[in-house]
Amino acid sequence: MHQVIVTRPGAEADNWVHQLRGHGIEALPLPLQDIVPATDAASLHRLQASAASYDACMFVSPQAARFFQAPPWIQAHGRCWAPGPGTAQALIALGVHAERIDQPPPCSAQFDSEALWAVVAPQVQSGHRLLIVRGLSPDGSTGRDWLKDQCEARGGQVDACVAYRRQAAVWDAQQVRIAERALDDGSIWLISSSEALIHLAQRFPGQDFARARALVTHPNIQLSASNMGFGEIMTTRPAITDVLAGLQAMN
């Protein structure tokens, strides 16, 4: 089986590498993004302190959960919305009671805002208060507002806070060489973020990606990889069993 390049940030990459190696797959961590604290720590702390005033808090990613550090009220009493199992597990690791977490069912076709909304929509009515905990991109973007729009259309009140920032990962010379080889030698890039692909394109301006291969975890990422010119792309859910099946199909 070809080598797998795991591009998730930091500890997430290490966790995926560990799981893949446990199934006999050669995998290397090569994060395309670094996750760093938000610059406006005072605003974040104010929202943490006022968490009890919200009916629910949505954490858009595992990093959102880790950087927000859910206070005791959320852990024991508040509703926590998670778009997928990775975020749910991060919340549980922080002490949030599993019964307080709303997430898409394991059989969902995708783990995203649309799948989450199908679960949490009945909670939202006039006056419902939601706090969305998310990250900030280098271009100032905080991601899609689709779920926010759904809540407000039902009369809900939505606030948002930035708990962390995403930025292009800093590579050393060895990591650059690994990436150059992996774009040409049949390695499979495991991609979980369209923004990560932007960083890859910026790292290698003018690169012909026709020989590059990618296993991506959402149709939107597939579109981004296709626009970059990846020669082979397969889309799967971001669950280990699905990723393993996808890798097997690509080899």
Mean pLDDT: 93
Query: Which spans have pLDDT < 50 for at least 5 consecutive residues?
Result: none
Strand tally: 11
Terminal Cα span: 6 Å
CATH class of the largest domain: Alpha Beta
Strand order in the sheet with the most strands: 3-8-7-4-5-6
Give the CATH architecture of the largest domain. 3-Layer(aba) Sandwich
SS strand fraction: 15-25%
| Main sheet makeup | 6 strands, mixed
What is the H/E order?
EHEEHEHHEHEHEHEHEHEHEH
Q: What descriptive keywords fit this protein?
A:
5-stranded parallel beta sheet; alpha/beta; 6-stranded mixed beta sheet; 2 domains; 251 residues; Rossmann fold; 11 strands
Q: What's this, in brief?
A:
The protein has helices spanning 10-22, 41-49, 62-68, 72-76, 85-93, 113-120, 146-153, 173-182, 194-203, 219-228, 240-250, and strands spanning 4-6, 27-29, 33-37, 56-59, 79-81, 101-102, 129-136, 157-168, 188-191, 213-216, 232-235.
Describe this structure in words.
By secondary structure, this protein is α/β, with parallel strands linked by helices. The protein has 11 helices and 11 strands. 40% of the residues are buried. Helix content is 40%, strand content 21%. It folds into 2 domains: 111 residues, 3-Layer(aba) Sandwich (Rossmann fold), CATH 3.40.50.10090; 131 residues, Rossmann fold, CATH 3.40.50.10090. It has a 6-stranded mixed beta sheet with strand order 3-8-7-4-5-6. The chain is globular, with a radius of gyration of 19 Å.
